[in-house]
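Page 42, continued from yesterday. The earlier attempt failed because a stray header line got pasted into the input along with the sequence. Redoing it now with the clean sequence only.
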Amino acid sequence: MSEAIEVKRTNPAVDFMGRVTKAFSAKLGVVLIVLVLLFVLIGPFFTPYGMNDVDLLNMYAGPSLAHPFGCDSMGHDILTRLMLGGRYSLAIGFCSALFGAVVGIILGSIGGYFGGVTETLVMRICDIWSALPSMMLCILVSNALGSGFFSTVIALAVGTVPGIARLIRGQILTERSKEYIEAAQSINCSNVVIMFKHLLPNVIQPVIVTTTMGIGSAMIMAASLSYIGLGIQPPNPEWGAMLSEGRSYIRTYPHLILVPGIAIAITVFAINLVGDGVRDALDPKLRD
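This time it went through. Structure tokens are written below.
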């Protein structure tokens, strides 16, 4: 009798996370991100203050037991606003990076798959698109659309599209001549099915890494827009808006800008660490 061979099955998601957190730096990044998420999502339920509660007796107050991070110029509790503002900052970073990636993937897939005039047209559009510096483009779009969450997301996403489109187009050019694509064409698969069901899963890895790293960059850009009077505006407590509110008191009340500034730095640092882990996990040369 032949002995049965036991096949060990693993969950792909668990296996991927195991590869992502293989390095200590990536583990640190995951821990920091989890702590930040708990802080902004659950923390507001445990604070006794509301987002816009005013305490006139504690205007500009420094850290204390009643207000661990102090109060701002209106007597608002900075800790409470930091928690709620983190929701805006994280949502803007994630949504803008994801939206830019989706648009870039669509443009790059069309240009790389069809080639010829279509590819030339798409790439020239991307060249014109990327001729302006990203920050200037964000300012122009944000100024045209006005302030607000969705306007800020679109403004930040616009600058990331050309890079993603070029990346996907280059990956597809190396894949479209392979045998599995010819097999799909031979059974009359539509171009959409070939692009997004057969080609895209095999070329998406660099985009995942770029998009993950782009979340932190988008958060910094969002804070920059709010700092110069665009993006999310007061009384909404976005971290960049909090920096903008406290910039006039940098010498007299430094805690007004130190607290949101440190929050941005820690969050972006954690996202970059996880991005490095994702890059290593998707690199076949680094797999066991």
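Notes: The mean pLDDT is 85.
Reminder to self: strip header lines before submitting.
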